[in-house]
Design goal:
two-stranded antiparallel ribbon, Spore Coat Polysaccharide Biosynthesis Protein SpsA, Chain A
Length: about 260
């Protein structure tokens, strides 16, 4: 297990984000260390996660493969809490993060979401606590735009999943066991009033990167913590940017949406 200098120690916190990040993406290798508006993708993800009011700590979970050394070194140089573990068994990497940095509630974020919404993180945390859930997310039903995925899970529940999940799919996708067997847990999925699962604000392909460059240059540099609603309003005003990676996707906002942001 590795941790950054200036370690946060083993103090247990209430709410902790763990960001899974790697350099070995097959479709867009090295994407976490690409630049958007002069800053690295991983820097944007960490900064937006830290901006959530209800979050006590942010940890990055990096594979222990040589290709990921540069990513780990960035965490060290920037005093970001970090652990390293298996490339394929991502669930075990999350358990390493919980061992090194204990918490009561863990929020799972992936590093291909440089526009993750701090306000949405807070909303899901509040919903999770108010309902007394084991697992709360905005990924099912899948009607939010891609790139805003947030999953909240009790740390002891994730440890229970680690003890019983043996299928490679469940180990790789961390929380998929919970979603596959919801009767074993108290779960809730936040739904969005609009159906936008084909709007891509995630970073997975070259076209995504080209589109996100425009969003960051024209919007995020001016409003660093812009919300999902502000981003959607921006895309409504600039359909040519949305078309870069979502050509042909219908994009209609309801009357009053632009006035209410």
């Amino acid at each position: 297990m590795f941790s950054s200098r200036g370690s946060f120690g083993v103090n247990r916190v209430n709410n902790q984000i763990v960001i899974q990040a790697r350099m070995s993406s097959t479709r867009l290798p090295g994407k976490t260390m690409m630049e958007l508006a002069g800053r690295l993708v991983i820097d944007h993800v960490v900064s937006r996660c830290r901006a959530a009011f209800g979050v006590d700590r942010v940890v990055v979970a990096v594979p222990d493969a040589q290709i990921d050394d540069r990513l780990f070194q960035w965490c060290v140089e920037n005093d970001i809490a970090c652990v390293r573990g298996s490339t394929e068994d991502v669930l075990s990497r999350y358990i390493k993060a919980l061992d090194a940095y204990p918490c009561r509630t863990m929020i799972r974020i992936t590093a291909d979401c440089p526009l993750v919404d701090p306000g949405m993180i807070d909303a899901l945390l509040a919903l999770h606590a108010a309902m007394g859930n084991d697992y709360t997310s905005n990924v099912s039903p899948p009607n939010f735009p891609k790139g805003f995925d947030i999953e909240v899970v009790c740390a002891d529940v994730l440890r229970r999943v680690d003890a019983i999940a043996v299928q490679p799919l469940h180990r790789e996708h961390v929380t998929s066991y919970i979603r596959e067997f919801p009767d074993e847990f108290k779960t809730f999925g936040m739904s969005y009033g609009l159906e936008m699962p084909d709007i891509r604000l995630t970073l997975d392909r070259t076209e995504d990167y080209q589109m996100l460059q425009k969003v960051f240059e024209q919007l995020v540099q001016l409003q660093p913590l812009c919300s999902m609603y502000e981003i959607l309003a921006f895309l409504h005003e600039h359909p040519e940017i949305l078309a870069i990676n979502s050509a042909g996707v219908p994009f209609e906002l309801p009357a009053g949406f632009l006035l209410s942001r």
